[in-house]
Amino acid sequence: MRPPAPRRRGPSPAGVLLLLVLALAGVRRVDAAGDPAPLRFGFSARLFSDVNEDDARASLKVWAHTVGVEHGVPVDPMLEIYSDTDAIKEAMLGQKVDGVTMTTLEFWALRRAMSFRPSVVLGVSHGKTTEEYLLLVRGDNPATQLADLRGRSLAVASATPENLATIWGETLVLEAHLGTARTFWRKITRNGKISRVVLPVFFRQVDACIVTRDGFRTMSELNPQIGRQLRVLAQSPAVVTTAFCFRGDLVSPLYDKLVTNAGQVVDTPAGRQVMTLFHSEQAVTRPIAELDGACALLDRHQQLLAAAGPVASDPAPAESQPAGEKEKP
Q1: 133-237 has the same fold as 16-128+239-297
Q2: Contact (CB, 8 A) for 171 and 19
Q3: Fold classified for 16-128+239-297
Q4: What is the pLDDT of residues 38-94, one digit of tens each?
Q5: Nearest to residue 79, comparing CAs of 54, 24, 42?
Q6: 280, 34 in Cβ contact below 8 A?
Q7: For 133-237, CATH number?
Q8: Percent of the chain, pLDDT > 70?
Q9: Which of 9, 18, 34, 156 has its CA 20 to 30 A from that of 316?
Q10: Is the pTM of this model over 0.70?
Q11: Residue ranges of the domains in the chain?
Q12: Between 195-202 and 213-222, two packed helices, what is the crossing angle to 10 degrees?
């Protein structure tokens, strides 16, 4: 399965987009005969959802420059934003970049085509590095199992057409032998703004939605009625959704220092400000095996989809609605 080109938008709430740059807050220039070559960073366009790419690129350069000046870290100011998985692959195999912050969906697509260093940098949100997805319906919806929702409408909290939330949702359908998501649901819509996914279910405009557990918790805190009126019909395993990964052939004295000091992000005002801006609490270094859960989900989905074979009746693809667009009645 080859992910389609993502929408070009601004940093996602996951906050991982700037983790590598922020992690450098704890790194120091090595004392050697010569300074190490500037580290080169890349970012997947899939991590953008709120602002255009030019604005995001400008923001990334400003922060990279600030961290470089404050801490004497050699950072190439030409931070790249890659539009798709092929672009990331070409850049890393060609040694044009030392590491890329990407979705685990992209990592999964690349993991057999190239090697990665054994440590990754992850963002911490609500005290954890993983996320869970929930399938929600109204409490008064008579559905007691997924099969009861056949022919109903679904909204997914995502601005991109290919994402873990959608893939987990289709895996549920495939495992229950109910066809594919396209044949099971009457209509599927996407929106990057969680309120435009949860509220239509609350107001009975949409039958079900898939959101993150953290997103649902936040919505429920803002409006307790949402927490009381909506109930969980299914939940995903905990998975890492984004990570900063280094290419396997990277040789730099800065690598070990970077992964060792990732947790010192919040030790500087600049680090704390950006972590707050992107809704993350901390940056941590973890073994790359932390991504195995997401990869297992993607492997399972691919196996089930292949076993399902060609679909005779294939409705139109899911509709996307930008986060700022008004909800249709």
Answers
A1: yes
A2: no
A3: D-Maltodextrin-Binding Protein; domain 2 (3.40.190)
A4: 788 888 988 876 666 677 677 667 666 665 565 555 667 788 889 999 999 999 999
A5: 42
A6: no
A7: 3.40.190.10
A8: 70
A9: 9
A10: yes
A11: 16-128+239-297, 133-237
A12: 70
